[in-house]
Amino acid sequence: MCGSELRGFQSRIAEFDARGVRVAAISADPPETNLEYRRQLGLTFPLLSDPAGDVLRRYDLLHAGGGPGGSDISRPAEFLVDAAGNVRWANLTESVIVRARPEDALKAADALTTADALTTASPPAPAR
Fold first, then answer.
1. 25: DSSP letter
2. pTM for the complete prediction?
3. At residue 81, what are phi and psi to the nearest 5 degrees?
4. CA distance 67 to 105
5. Is 6 strand, coil or helix?
6. Which pairing describes strands 77-81 and 87-92: parallel, antiparallel, or unpaired?
7. At what angle do helices 102-120 and 3-11 cross, to 10 degrees?
8. Residue 33, SS3 per DSSP
9. How does DSSP assign 49-112, residue by residue?
């Protein structure tokens, strides 16, 4: 995981909170590694572990052998998932050097909120 990417999301956490978006990160690292990394970076959002790669495979994010010493790592990606578990937006990269920018996820959250408001708006009252 990229510390600068995680710190970028942490620095904008209030903006995510204001939109009702809960930030979480996941990696192939074991829980004890993520716990220490989370502490070192001062993250207030969850840093989840998937050392078996089950979730990473489900989202096609596992870069098998792509890490130091041939360890498995996750491809960088961001998702906005709604309360029902549906992926509403995804930003996937093919390269581990391309990282997420929190402003992209915030813009996507805003666009989804606007789109949802448009689809649930009441139709205009009939003319009299």
1. E
2. 0.77
3. -115, 130
4. 25
5. helix
6. antiparallel
7. 50
8. helix
9. E-TT-HHHHHTT-EETT-SGGG--EEPPEEEEE-TTS-EEEEEE-SSTT----HHHHHHHHHHH
Superfamily of 3-117 according to CATH: Glutaredoxin (3.40.30.10)
Q: Tokens 């998932």 correspond to what residue? A: 81
> Domain segments of the chain: what residues?
3-117
d(CA 39, CA 115): 37
Reported as a single tens digit per residue, the pLDDT across 89-108 is: 988 877 667 777 899 999 99
Amino acid in the structure at residue 22: R
Q: Which residue is associated with the tokens 């990160």?
A: 25
Q: How much of the chain exceeds pLDDT 90, in percent? A: 39
Structure tokens at 66: 């792509």
